[in-house]
Design a protein that fits this description.
heterodimer; A: 298 residues; alpha/beta; 4-stranded antiparallel β-sheet; 11 helices; 10 strands; B: 752 residues; alpha+beta; elongated
């Protein structure tokens, strides 16, 4: 029950490096070339092991209830899109998974959320360890006012990594996975604030990847980006799903359709419907879902 | 029946409609734009102008200090004719009526301004004798003339202003009293003579053919019988070439042809030889005189050299011996005479070749070189207000100069370099602008004040910068919003505390309290941080489940029991500890072990008191800049697994560093300009000592305490304005540094 106090396997490699023992770096996934904006086939991921279970989760901001008895299972190495109109609770649910809601006063959560069967809200959980396993990419790119290198290395430095070679390799790996390496490799030590908006967002993804999380939470990662940058991010998600469990909040139905294996539709804090993405978009079971995905409201 | 009224024609207000109204409106808006832009620009320029204007005014008040002195020849006229020689000259305080003692035994009273004809008064009781030498006292218009029959004739001059309708219209001069002193037997002519008088008591020293006699007498009234002293045996066989008496008439200096001179002590019934000194030159000593104040003896030689001598202690326990400590620019000819100013440390020095200079004794500067206007000057006089000089040359022509040397005491060297002042044993930086007596020499070294200002600021910043920045970090990053909403306004309120109240508390309560109970103070100062560190250590060892129970921002409550216990223990333990470790006397132990004397008003007190002024400003600005680090950045950091401390340390501090730096600079500026606190809590001792246990005197405190007593346009007044401009320059430098460093930090950490 206290496994959230321990790091995962990749983490252990970093720890091994910290302790001086030789450690293999995580493999670098080859980035496949993709036609920009190409629709991707939704896979059936239900046979993947469940990674995150949300069991009757309710959440209150003060007296206002924002989530009502949400039940949701998120499978390993899948992309789950959370869709719904503004204020429906999808971002709130996302932030429950890495406990970012802790930062907000007066939040109260009921129900049970587990990661690999471990209770996220158990009193012994160290949120710092949890957040190393559950990375997050925010709606608005938020690079630190530091160099590109230091941005990516931040999570490692937090953990005390000082080995320059290890830092170099992980930064390169992460930037390659975030498809930013070619653009950034010659300016690693320049300020990250000099990057374009799309590049900054990919930098934030690279930063999140550098600590080797198992789950990647993405809160409307492309909403502030132009179509080309959006396409790059979507390609990236397509590559990353082979390795990470991704939960993405999006306002764009097309994006949900393009990138996700499964889609969950929220309305007023209630999970209305969850299922295979193509099924949600082509054959929704609930009228609200149909109205939303066909653009009748939202 | 209802009729629909035709709606009034609507003005065509399309955005881009090219109508006359639209054009007029756009024109009006543009005009308004211009007016507002112009007035904003003008306002900004006015502020800049005002600041520079203030600086120009403040510095302008100080400028005359550096303009140097000027001397202007105002009168040249014939004073004595027919080969008569003027032996001495005295002048009134308006520089109007010079009185000359001639070698014909007369006193000639001239009028340089009014139309009065010259008056010539013969010395009574000269009889058939002739005048062999003549001098005038430095301190008052009292002449002494030596005669061929061994007497000294003394005459006092009275200057009396004449008023009409409440205005001074002229100056009267008359011989007020005269008497004769038989010094030696009637067959010996007096060769050298010196006189000293405060207008009432007259002292004379006369040398004649190997004889040295002293005499004192009251000028008039009862007790006029003279007292005589003799020192003939002490000077036997030596040729006396110069004699001098000091203003108090308790010391006489006698110069000899072999380049040596004696210092006599006249205090005893008989003159005693105090010192036998070598002037450093083999040529005869030709002129001797004390500088105003009677501390420095000037020695002039036949080879033109002029040196200044003052009593110096060679060791801490030895007595002062006259030592040559000043060397002036040498003349080309034998030194003829000195005439000290009666206002400051200036002296008028004449050489046989007609050279005439005003020099400043303390700084050995030539204030005015009056040049060689005539042939040898036989009589020189310094106006009582030190604003004029008269000299009569061998041809009987009188020259009068107006001398403007108001700021002779001030020079760059005196302001910023160590100066050997009278009654000091070595050159030192001294600020002591006023003293108890009229002959006090003001000492204007700005170095102790600058040092004091910087020292005060240093200790204030040492105390308050860590506190303010860590408090800002805590409040902006760790405190619960509720605590923040209480702490921030409270600290800001602290800044609204009148500094005079802070100074009062620090000077009259805190410093005596600390002084009388140092053991407890030091105990608490050590215990508080230790307790906090201990509490932090203990809390970090607590199991996660306990730590998770504490609500966000409430962790500080954990400190409370620790602090209470720590303070209590420190309070109880410091007494016995002081008893065991320091024999119950920490102060005495400090002195014995580190030779650190503890003054009650010291830098620690000032640091704490100034902290009250500095902490609010540093805290507020630093807290703002830390709070302004966007939440999104902090969220990103925490989402990467950073703890709040790591986020604060690795992200917030660097990102807020331009603001923190600006906060420190603002605090620095506040501290260096702070006045009331330092006036009341520093002890105002202008000393150069980095010890934290003594006080200081800052520039601002000096201005505040001394400007009310400084005569307008006087040296002190202008020096204080100069120190004010120094403060201005400090502030300018600090702001510039803040701007430059801030800009580079902003460039490095960018804008988010």
């Amino acid at each position: 029950m206290v496994n959230l106090r321990m790091a995962n396997e990749s983490q252990n490699r970093i720890d091994a490096a910290l302790s001086g023992t030789d450690a293999r770096l995580p493999d670098v996934l080859p980035t496949k070339g993709h036609v920009i904006g190409a629709a991707q086939d939704p896979r059936d991921v239900t046979k993947h092991a469940p990674k995150i279970r949300i069991d009757k989760a309710s959440l209150w901001y003060g007296t206002k209830q924002a989530l009502f008895d949400v039940d949701l299972t998120i499978h390993e190495r899948s992309v789950t899109a959370l869709i719904g109109p503004s204020g429906c609770g999808k971002s709130t649910l996302l932030r429950c998974i890495n406990r970012m809601n802790d930062l907000i006063d007066s939040v109260r959560i009921e129900g049970k959320l587990t990661l690999d069967g471990e209770d996220l809200y158990h009193r012994d959980v160290e949120v710092e360890i949890l957040r190393r396993r559950v990375g997050m990419v925010f709606q608005k790119s938020n690079p630190f006012p530091k160099s590109i290198f230091e941005n990516v290395a931040y999570g490692l430095r937090i953990q005390g990594v000082k080995n320059r070679a290890l830092l170099d390799e992980i930064v390169e790996t992460s930037l390659r996975r975030a498809a930013l390496w070619d653009e950034a490799k010659d300016r690693l030590h320049e300020s990250a604030l000099g990057l374009s908006g799309g590049q900054q967002q990919r930098l934030c993804i690279a930063r999140a990847l550098a600590t080797s999380p198992e789950v990647l939470l993405m809160d409307e990662p492309a909403s502030a980006l132009d179509p080309i940058s959006t396409a790059k991010i979507e390609d990236l998600i397509h590559d990353l799903r082979e390795r990470y469990t991704i939960v993405i909040v999006t306002h764009s139905m097309h994006q949900a359709a393009r990138v996700s294996d499964r889609t969950a539709f929220f309305l007023n804090g209630i999970l209305v419907e969850e299922g295979k993405t193509d099924q949600i978009f082509t054959n929704p079971q609930r009228k609200e879902t149909e109205d939303y995905v066909t653009g009748r409201f939202g | 029946m209802t009729t629909i009224a035709p709606s009034p024609p609507r003005p065509e207000h399309h955005a881009f409609a090219d109508t006359p109204q639209a054009r007029a409106r756009i024109k009006r808006l543009r005009r308004l734009d211009k007016i507002i832009a112009g007035s904003i620009t003008a306002g900004g320029l006015l502020i800049i102008l005002a600041v520079f204007g203030i600086f120009a005014f403040v510095f302008g008040e100080a400028v005359p200090l550096f303009l140097g002195s000027s001397a202007e020849l105002v009168t040249t006229r014939s004073a004595v004719t027919d080969g008569t020689k003027a032996l001495a000259v005295a002048i009134d305080e308006y520089g109007q009526r010079p009185v000359l003692l001639t070698d014909k035994g007369t006193l000639r009273i001239l009028d340089l301004v009014g139309g009065n004809t010259d008056v010539e008064v013969a010395l009574e009781s000269l009889g058939t004798a002739t005048i062999t030498s003549g001098v005038v006292a430095h301190e008052s218009p009292v002449f002494a003339a030596g005669t061929s029959d061994g007497r000294v004739l003394v005459a006092g001059i009275a200057f009396e202003p004449r008023f009409a309708d409440g205005k001074r219209v002229g100056q009267d001069a008359s011989v007020a009293w005269q008497f004769a002193l038989p010094m030696v037997d009637g067959s010996t002519a007096i060769e050298r003579i010196a006189v000293s008088s405060d207008g009432n008591r007259v002292a004379v020293v006369a040398a004649a053919n190997g004889i040295l006699k002293f005499a004192t007498r009251r000028a008039k009234g009862i007790g006029t019988s003279p007292k005589f002293g003799d020192a003939a045996e002490l000077v036997a066989g030596k040729t006396i070439t110069a004699v001098a008496l000091n203003g108090a008439a308790d010391h006489a200096a006698i110069g000899f042809a072999d380049g040596r001179f004696f210092l006599f002590d006249l205090d005893k019934a008989d003159a005693t030889l105090k010192e036998n000194l070598d002037s450093g030159s083999a040529s005869p000593v030709t002129a001797l005189s004390w500088v105003f104040g009677g501390q420095t003896l000037l020695v002039g030689s036949a080879d033109g050299r002029v040196s200044g001598w003052q009593g110096i202690r060679s060791g801490p326990s030895s007595s002062r011996t006259l030592t040559r400590v000043r060397e002036f620019d040498a003349f080309d000819a034998p030194v003829a005479d000195f005439m000290p100013s009666q206002r400051n440390k200036c002296i008028l020095a004449a050489a046989r070749d007609g050279a005439l200079r005003v020099e400043h004794s303390t700084t050995q500067r030539i204030i005015s070189d009056l040049g060689r206007t005539g042939s040898t000057f036989t009589a020189i006089g310094y106006a009582p207000k030190a604003d004029g000089v008269v000299a009569i040359d061998a041809s009987g022509t009188l020259h009068a100069w107006r001398v403007d040397a108001d700021h002779a005491d001030v020079s760059l060297a005196a302001l910023f370099a160590p100066v050997l002042y009278e009654s000091y044993d070595e050159p030192d930086y001294v600020w002591q602008s006023t003293g108890g007596s009229d002959d006090y020499e003001p000492k204007y070294s700005l170095v102790p004040l600058i040092f004091g200002s910087l020292k005060g600021v240093l200790y204030a910043m040492l105390f308050s910068a860590p506190l303010a920045i860590l408090a800002a970090l805590y409040v902006s990053q760790f405190a619960s919003p509720k605590a923040r909403s209480i702490v921030k306004p409270t600290v800001e309120l602290m800044g609204a505390l009148p500094s005079v109240v802070v100074g009062f508390l620090a000077g009259l309560w805190l410093s005596p309290a600390v002084d009388s109970d140092m053991g407890h103070t030091v105990g608490l100062l050590l215990a508080l941080p230790l307790t906090i560190v201990l509490a932090a250590f203990v809390s970090s060892r607590l199991p996660q489940r306990v730590r998770n129970r504490v609500a966000f921002g409430r962790e500080v409550l954990f400190l409370v029991p620790f602090l209470a216990a720590g303070i209590g223990l420190a309070w109880l333990a410091s007494g016995p500890l002081e008893q065991t470790l320091f024999d119950g006397d920490l102060k005495g132990w400090l002195v014995r072990t580190f030779e650190l004397a503890y003054d009650p008003r010291n830098c620690v007190i000032v640091g704490i008191a100034l902290g009250f002024a500095v902490i609010p400003i540093v805290f507020t600005v630093a807290e703002d800049s830390m709070s302004n680090v966007p939440k999104s950045l902090r969220a990103a950091s925490e989402a990467l697994g950073a703890s709040r401390w790591q986020t604060a340390w690795r992200l917030v501090l660097p990102a807020a560093s331009p603001g923190i730096f600006a906060a420190l600079m603002l605090g620095f500026g506040r501290a260096i300009g702070e006045t009331m606190i330092v006036v009341m809590a520093t002890g105002n001792t202008p000393i150069l000592d980095p010890s934290p246990f003594n006080g200081m005197r800052t520039i601002s405190a000096s201005i505040a305490t001394e400007i009310p007593e400084a005569p307008v346009d006087g040296s002190l007044y202008r020096v204080l304005f100069l120190s004010g401009s120094l403060l201005f320059v400090f502030a300018f430098l600090i702001n510039t540094a803040a701007e430059v460093v801030g800009a580079s930090l902003r460039k490095r950490y960018g804008k988010w």
